[in-house]
C-alpha cells in the first residue's frame, strides 16, 4: 500500500534512529501508525541516553534475543548485523554468544537448592558434607577466573562436582580468551537475566554487583535495562504480520 505522509514520516524517522526497517514494521505501520511511533520513542531511549557505545548496545540486544529463554531469530540477525556495522568483531559477537550460553546452568542453580530443601524435609540429609581436595580446587579455580563466589554454587559443588567442573571450564572460555572488558561481560549476564523471558533475580543481583565492581556506571546499567525492556515489542513484530496476512487489505479474513 502507499504510505500516507504521516506513515512515511514515521518510517523515515525509524530508519534514521534504528538504522533498520523490515516487513514486520511495515505491516504494523499500516495497521497502527501511532503504535509504531510510540514503539520508536521507546526504542530510542537508550540511543538518546548514549551511556554505552553503539557497539555495546547492539551486543546487549544480541544477548537478550539469542538467550535460550527467547531465541528471537529475526532480532539476532538484525542486531548481529548492526553490531558488525558498529565496529564489533566476529570474535566479540561470538564472545557474547558464549556468555549467553551459560544461562542453562540456572536449572541447577534453582533446582539443586530446592532438592536440598526436600532432602532435609524428608529427613534424608543432615547437613553439608565438607569439600574434598578436588572440590576445594574447583572452587578456587572458579573464584580466581570469575572474581567472585556465591552461596548458590555451594550445594552444586558438593553434590555434583562433575557438573560443576564441566561448567567451570565451559563458562570460563570467554574469560580466558575473550577481549570484551569485564564490565561488558557482566552487563551481558545482567541483560539476559533481567529479560522478561527469564527474570532470574539471584543472578541479576549478583551480576549487577559484579558490573559495578568492574566499573560500570549507574547510567550504563540503566541503559542495559532500557535495552532488555524492548523484548516486549517482539509480541507485535511477530504477530502483526500474521494479523495483516489474515485480515487482508480490505479488512476481511482470507479464506
What is the general shape? elongated
Helix content: over 70%
Classification by helices and strands: mainly alpha
Any low-confidence stretches, pLDDT <50, length ≥5? none
What is the ordering of alpha helices and beta strands? HHHHHHHHHHHHHH
How would you sum up the major sheet? none
Mean pLDDT across all residues, rounded? 94
In percent, how much strand structure appears in the residues? under 5%
- The number of distinct β-strands equals 0
Number of helices: 14
Separation of termini?
21 Å
Domain Carboxymuconolactone decarboxylase-like: 33-99, 161-241
InterPro entries: AhpD-like, CMD-like
Protein name: Carboxymuconolactone decarboxylase family protein
Structure description:
With 255 residues, this protein is mainly alpha-helical. The chain is 71% helix and 0% strand. It contains 14 helices and no strands. Helix 1 runs parallel beside helix 3 and helix 2 crosses helix 14. The chain starts with a helix and ends in an 8-residue tail after the last helix.
Features:
mainly alpha; 0% strand; 255 residues; Carboxymuconolactone decarboxylase family protein; AhpD-like; single chain; CMD-like
Topology:
Layout lengths: L4 H14 L4 H9 L1 H17 L4 H13 L6 H13 L4 H11 L5 H16 L11 H14 L7 H6 L1 H17 L4 H13 L6 H13 L4 H11 L5 H14 L8
Short structural description:
This protein is 71% helix and 0% strand. The protein has 255 residues and is mainly α. It is elongated, with a radius of gyration of 22 Å.
Amino acid at each position: 500500500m502507499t504510505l500516507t505522509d504521516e506513515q512515511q514520516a514515521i518510517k523515515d524517522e525509524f530508519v534514521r534512529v534504528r538504522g533498520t526497517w523490515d516487513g514486520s514494521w511495515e505491516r504494523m505501520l499500516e495497521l497502527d501508525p501511532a503504535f509504531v511511533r510510540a514503539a520508536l520513542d521507546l526504542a530510542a531511549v537508550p540511543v538518546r541516553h548514549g551511556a554505552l557505545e553503539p557497539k555495546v548496545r547492539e551486543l546487549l540486544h544480541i544477548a537478550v534475543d539469542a538467550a535460550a529463554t527467547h531465541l528471537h531469530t529475526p532480532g539476532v540477525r538484525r542486531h548481529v548485523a548492526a553490531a558488525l556495522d558498529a565496529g564489533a568483531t566476529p570474535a566479540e559477537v561470538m564472545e557474547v554468544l558464549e556468555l549467553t550460553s551459560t544461562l542453562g546452568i540456572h536449572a541447577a542453580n534453582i533446582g539443586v537448592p530446592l532438592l536440598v530443601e526436600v532432602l532435609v524435609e524428608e529427613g534424608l540429609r543432615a547437613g553439608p558434607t565438607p569439600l574434598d581436595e578436588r572440590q576445594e580446587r574447583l572452587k578456587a579455580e572458579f573464584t580466581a577466573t570469575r572474581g567472585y563466589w556465591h552461596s548458590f554454587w555451594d550445594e552444586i559443588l558438593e553434590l555434583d562436582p562433575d557438573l560443576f567442573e564441566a561448567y567451570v571450564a565451559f563458562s570460563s572460555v570467554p574469560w580466558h580468551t575473550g577481549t570484551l572488558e569485564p564490565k561488558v561481560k557482566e552487563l551481558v549476564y545482567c541483560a539476559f537475566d533481567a529479560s522478561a523471558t527469564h527474570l532470574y533475580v539471584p543472578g541479576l543481583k549478583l551480576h549487577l554487583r559484579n558490573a559495578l565492581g568492574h566499573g560500570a556506571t549507574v547510567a550504563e546499567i540503566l541503559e542495559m535495562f532500557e535495552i532488555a525492556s524492548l523484548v516486549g515489542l517482539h509480541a507485535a513484530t511477530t504477530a502483526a504480520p500474521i494479523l495483516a496476512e489474515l485480515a487482508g487489505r480490505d479488512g476481511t479474513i482470507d479464506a
